[in-house]
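REQUEST ID: PR-0412
SUBMITTED BY: lab tech R.K.
PRIORITY: routine
TASK: structure prediction, single protein chain
INPUT:
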Amino acid sequence: MQIIDGKALAAKIKQEIKEEVAVLKRNHQVVPHLAAVLVGNDPASQSYVKSKVRSCELVGFESTLIRKDDSITEQELLEIIEDLNENDDVDGFIVQLPLPKHIDEQKVTLTIKPEKDVDGFHPVNFGKMTQGIDAFLPATPMGILEMLKRYEIKTEGKHCVVLGRSNIVGTPMSILLSRKAYPGNATVTITHSRTKDLSAVLRSADIIIAAIGIPEFVTGDMVKEDCVVIDVGINRVEDSTRLKGYRLVGDVDFESVSSRCSYITPVPGGVGPMTVTALLMNTLKSAKSKMSA
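STATUS: complete
OUTPUT:
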């Protein structure tokens, strides 16, 4: 069993980005600029955005953080998005989800210009992805693809089972792994809460992408020998022995599953760091595309 070390891989890719940014700055006076809009005080969102800002500083990007409390109106938020759309100094931006219930997340996503949608959520980017046209890929699936590629994990002809069908991870992941490319050319089964005999389906998998949002749902008896397991979940579980009163676990029971795997991602330190790194990769791509426009 080999651990897929997302933290170490993210650090390596960030160093590559940092070197490329230095060349862009020296030769073209171009510095990629990522902006983030954070609404409310959700602890997980604050931590995630903080990580993005810190990563921008590390690689030499400019970064802007726009913070608003959860009393902001939908119209006020849409006006902020329009300002970012028209700001030529900003190469890409994200609006951190979830948003307060009185704000329509779909309307927010549709208002972001596709060419600045470095989260890859806009239907234009999503549609291009399904047709194999160059586009910003959703950050988490993009990070997973990079992990598979950098660890040289074979996907062609493999049976990949995706656990979860969200538009953020499960659905795009199923599309990307079935595409005619590497990583890809897999036979993909997408599963969810209505899938019959889910355990049997999982046991048939050469690769499992677990993104169901249930702590330690996938156990050792659901996984065949030498399976590759990518754990996208990040869940807080109460633990009185920890200083913070909780511990972070994935959607996979690492202890029982890891002994059966050829490769597995840990939680934390697996997919999470690669999601932020993919966001940086998309922002760099956006900055470079403006140069050639």
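NOTES: The mean pLDDT is 95.
REVIEWED BY: pending
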